Hints:
The structure holds two protein chains of two kinds. Chain A is α+β, with helices and mostly antiparallel strands. Chain A has one domain: Alpha-Beta Complex (Sulfite Oxidase, Chain A, domain 2). Helices cover 21% and strands 22% of the residues of chain A. In chain A, the strands form three sheets. Chain A has a five-stranded mixed beta sheet. In chain A, strands 3, 6, 9, 10 and 11 form a five-stranded antiparallel beta sheet that branches. Chain A has a two-stranded antiparallel sheet with strand order 4-5. Chain B has a two-stranded antiparallel ribbon. Chain B has helices spanning 12-38, 56-84, 101-108, 123-147, 153-158, 162-190, 192-200, and strands at 4-8, 202-206. Chain B is mostly helical. The N and C termini of chain B lie close together (9 Å). Chain B has a single domain, classed as Up-down Bundle (Fumarate Reductase Cytochrome B subunit), CATH 1.20.950.20. Chain B has seven helices and two strands; from the N terminus they run E-H-H-H-H-H-H-H-E. The mean pLDDT of chain B is 93. In chain B, helix 1 (12-38) packs antiparallel against helix 2 and helix 4 (123-147) packs antiparallel against helix 6 (162-190). Chain A binds chain B through residues 8-11, 18, 44-46, 48-49, 52, 59-61, 64-67, 127, 129-135, 207-208, 232, 235-238, 242-243, and chain B through 35-36, 38-41, 54-58, 60-62, 64-65, 68, 148-151, 153, 157, 162-163, 166.
Amino acid sequence: xxxxxxxxxxxxxxxxxxRKLLRYAPLLLLAGCDMTPEGRVESTLRSVQSFxxxxxxxxxxxxxLAAEYPDEELTPEGGFRVNGYDTDRPDIDLEHWTxxxxxxxxxxxxxxxxxxxxxxxxxxxxxxxCVEGWSMVPKWGGTPTREFLRDIGADPNAKYASxxxxxxxxxxxxxxxxxxxxxxxCYEAYGKPLELEHxxxxxxxxxxxxxxxxxxxxxxxxxxxxxxxxxWEDQGYDWFAGL
Amino acid sequence: xxxxxxEFHHPFIIRLTHWINTVALAIMVASGxxxxxxxxVFSFKVPEALTLGGWLAGGREWHFFAMWxxxxxxxxxxGYNLLTRHGRQTTLFRPSDAxxxxxxxxxxxxxxxxxxxxxxxxALQKLAYTxxxxxxxxxxITGIAIYWPVQFGGLTRLFGNYDSARMWHFLFMAAxxxxxxxxxxxxxxxxxxxxxxxxTGWKRIRE
Lengths: 243, 207
């Protein structure tokens, strides 16, 4: 997935009921409906999914780098995919945009794009793998998230961080993945400022996770020890989503 | 006067792992096709009726649940065969079986009238039962290659790149399915007593 609110991940647009149903599935479980066969199947699948998240966290090697490709193997700029429709261009004031940081950090507050761009820019050609199965190799450019987080005194022992976005998308990460050397606060693609439909002014790029973790239009980061959810994760997609 | 005797064909662990595998494979294939349909790596989609999970997240949940069933059941089967040496003489294909391939093909084509002599399985059956576990290994390895293309990037590169690894994963699945198809045909032809022996272990033979 490339666009945050990409509905092609969900049921067909003419069946919005299912997603609504899934959103309230935990309530049904609370109500004791997990004694129905469907409920039992659902809760078994969820338990195994949590176990798989645990396995993924164990397998994740924080030093292991995703492959970086030579320029000849880049996906042509015309193929830099946007996968969605209604929320491609959220109403973002690029002039006055700031990134808010909260939670377990020594220096919480708001940071301007210029402040983020003060760090040494990392440019990398890495594969963006959508959970749907397609993938592409754009040329990303941005500030390694670990440099920024270290600078503002994020608690190195914190477990999680969540992000909120300009289109009310949200997702969250385990700290080791956010501190991975290839995780970027990305503000460039193909050597040019990020375009709006690709998440301008700043998006997350995280080659070690599926595309729905590479949140666009990031507006807030919260460092926390309470496990946060995510827009897709809360509907049944796996939380760790490691690659 | 016809007499009926019973022959023991399939030990308990073999029967158990066979039926667990049937369930695991059915889930893996149906949910895998649901995942495939989200962004087909080949130029066709699979009818939704053949898929499991309802939507992509559901397909993934089923797939990554049944993978454990498939894996550990396979390890149990493999371990059992290794420890008990089950099937070493009757099922495992050996180079010396190669000579039996052509006569069996001729027999199946009805060119040769008499069934070539066999103990339990003929040369073609041995070949099928010996190669199919290799396809299972292939489907697992390519599965890891596309599940963890960063953590196991070397595996992904072994199969070319990310997309070709996805194709290999699909092709190994197709190889398993083609085996299943042939297997079911043979089961239908062989009849009830043969099928029943995979449940009880014993086969009734009329002489």
